[in-house]
């Protein structure tokens, strides 16, 4: 077995395969060993197909930038032909008949996929603790959240099972777990990566799929391979000037960076340790020749969270209805209370409510665009706190009882509209939304955003910082991240602690 497996990133592992120094089977042996050793403690991988991966290694994987590199996919939006997809649900169990477009492109790089990673039901909350598969543990501290909704992928990367894994981001779901697990995570610009063919967009353009990695260059090289419009794509953006990999390997020009300190969710408290890392990162960037100046987007935070909730609830209702229509009622018979209630809320909304919310999104897009006329990017914490213990973010038993009651009461009157008007939604969603006070901006605006692993708490938990770039400018983000990585600012992964 290749004992030095965890010492290399994905590009370096592929180079060893291409030179003949190591075989794809030997890399898979190493990944399977790591998974067998670590996953019982982490619960990052919820479905394995090792034999299929060994057969692929023997038959010959596609010749590409990542030939032979062991790989995992989040069990949510990535359809992998011949394997089931559960979306983190006790009810959903759909056999994928074909690869989704992004999976086709990932396969063409030569990665060798051998499993699916854990995710909360439908990716709706930012901790990976689904009732279907159980909680994924933070690789730095057992009993603590790995974040979500790509928590399984982040834990698998940070622990050394794989050098990179597929993830998706609708409200911070790549950046959030990357920050809490000490990995690098970039959400691409809206339209950069495909979501089809079954979907044109997710959550009205908020969702973007990509990867979580340990190195900046791996993320850049994968985006080079997967980006570009597909047939019927609702968003088409210009290709980069050069490659993202080239951008990651060169120093950026001196940048003017806005320092965002205020979360966009009311009553959110930023942890003192997180603020300290923010200040430290700002000083480090200034020492590298960049300007960092306090500046905030002019956004109505009370309206901001409400508009996001409206869109997500409407799409949750659609997702459930669509699954029932295509695959039958058995696949939605045992949904978690929070999922059921978000769908209930979604059904209570009108088409006009949805348009009002999207109009609010436009205001946020415009105001952020005005800020980025002056600044090259925005620096903020990724998450207001380090990772929390399991059980803090999912609904409590009392909250779940309230949610079940709402389902019963809804038969008598429109409980969804009452919940919005009464403030019940704000109360129930506050613990989760507060943690998304910085990441949501990238999803609502569609701007590219990344989390860089640059700090540690006193408890030994990672702290990530977020940088949001201008639309269609992942290249500058990669350049800055690469510069920070080469300067030694990135913290060590869990397996090196």
Strand and helix layout:
Elements: H1 10-19, H2 24-42, E1 45-48, H3 50-59, E2 70-74, E3 84-85, E4 94-95, H4 101-108, E5 112-117, E6 137-138, E7 141-145, H5 151-159, E8 164-169, H6 175-181, E9 184-187, E10 208-213, H7 216-226, H8 244-249, E11 256-259, H9 272-287, E12 291-294, H10 301-327, H11 337-348, H12 351-374, E13 377-381, H13 397-409, H14 415-422, H15 424-435, H16 440-445, E14 449-456, E15 462-469, H17 474-486
Parallel strand pairs: 2-5, 11-12, 11-13
Antiparallel strand pairs: 1-5, 3-4, 6-7, 8-10, 9-10, 9-14, 13-15, 14-15
Helix pairs in contact: 2-3, 2-5, 5-6, 10-11, 10-12, 11-13, 11-14
Quick synopsis:
The chain is α+β, with helices and mostly antiparallel strands and 497 residues long.
Key features?
single chain; 497 residues; alpha+beta; Amidase signature (AS) enzymes; eight-stranded mixed β-sheet; three-stranded mixed β-sheet; 17 helices; 14% strand; globular
Describe the structure.
With 497 residues, the chain is α+β, with helices and mostly antiparallel strands. Helices cover 42% and strands 14% of the residues. The chain has a domain of 266 residues: Amidase signature (AS) domain (Amidase signature (AS) enzymes), CATH 3.90.1300. The chain has an 8-stranded mixed β-sheet with strand order 8-10-9-14-15-13-11-12, sandwiched between helices. The protein has a 3-stranded mixed β-sheet with strand order 1-5-2. The protein has a two-stranded antiparallel sheet with strand order 3-4. A hairpin with an 8-residue loop joins strand 3 and strand 4. Helix 2 crosses helix 5, helix 11 runs parallel beside helix 13 and helix 11 packs across helix 14. 58% of the residues are buried.
């Amino acid at each position: 077995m290749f004992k030095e497996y965890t010492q290399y990133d994905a590009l370096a592992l592929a180079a060893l395969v291409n030179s003949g120094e190591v075989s794809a089977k030997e890399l898979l042996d190493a990944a399977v060993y790591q998974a067998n050793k670590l996953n019982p403690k982490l619960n990052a991988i919820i479905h394995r197909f090792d034999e299929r991966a060994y057969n692929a290694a023997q038959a010959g994987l596609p010749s590409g930038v990542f030939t032979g590199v062991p790989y995992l996919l989040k069990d949510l939006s990535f359809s992998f032909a011949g394997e089931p997809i559960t979306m983190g649900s006790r009810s959903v169990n759909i056999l994928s008949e074909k690869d989704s477009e992004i999976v086709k492109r990932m396969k063409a790089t030569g990665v060798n996929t051998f499993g699916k990673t854990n995710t909360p039901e439908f990716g709706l909350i930012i901790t990976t603790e689904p009732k279907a598969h159980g909680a994924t543990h933070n690789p730095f501290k057992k009993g603590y959240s790995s974040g979500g909704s790509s928590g399984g992928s982040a834990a698998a990367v940070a622990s050394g099972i794989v050098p990179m894994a597929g993830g998706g981001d609708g409200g911070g779901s790549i950046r959030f777990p990357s920050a809490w697990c000490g990995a690098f995570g970039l959400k691409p610009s809206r339209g950069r990566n495909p979501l089809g063919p079954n979907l044109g967009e997710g959550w009205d353009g908020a969702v973007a799929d990509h990867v979580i990695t340990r190195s900046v260059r791996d993320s850049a090289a994968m985006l080079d391979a997967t980006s570009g419009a597909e047939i019927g794509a609702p968003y088409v953006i210009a290709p980069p000037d050069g490659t993202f990999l080239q951008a990651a390997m060169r120093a950026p020009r001196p940048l003017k960076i806005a320092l965002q300190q205020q979360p966009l969710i009311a009553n959110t408290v930023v942890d003192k340790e997180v603020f300290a890392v923010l200040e430290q990162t700002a000083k480090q960037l200034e020492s590298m020749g960049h300007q960092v100046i306090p500046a905030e987007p002019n956004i109505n935070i009370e309206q901001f969270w409400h508009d996001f909730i409206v869109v997500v609830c409407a799409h949750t209702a659609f997702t459930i209805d669509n699954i029932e229509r295509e695959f039958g009622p058995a696949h939605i018979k045992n949904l978690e209370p929070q999922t059921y209630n978000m769908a209930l809320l979604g059904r209570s909304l009108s088409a006009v409510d949805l348009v009002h919310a999207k109009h609010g999104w436009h205001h946020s897009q415009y105001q952020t665009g005005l800020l980025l006329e002056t600044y090259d990017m925005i620096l903020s914490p990724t998450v207001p706190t380090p990772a929390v213990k399991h059980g803090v973010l999912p609904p409590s038993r009392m909250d779940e009882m309230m949610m079940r009651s709402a389902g019963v009461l809804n038969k008598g009157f429109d409980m969804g509209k009452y919940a919005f008007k009464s403030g019940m939604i704000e109360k129930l969603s506050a613990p989760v939304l507060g943690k998304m006070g910085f990441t949501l901006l990238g999803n609502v605006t569609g701007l590219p955003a990344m989390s860089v692993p640059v700090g540690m708490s006193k408890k030994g938990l990672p702290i990530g910082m977020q940088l949001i770039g201008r639309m269609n400018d992942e290249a500058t983000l990669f350049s800055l991240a690469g510069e920070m990585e080469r300067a030694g600012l990135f913290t060590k992964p869990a397996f090196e602690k």
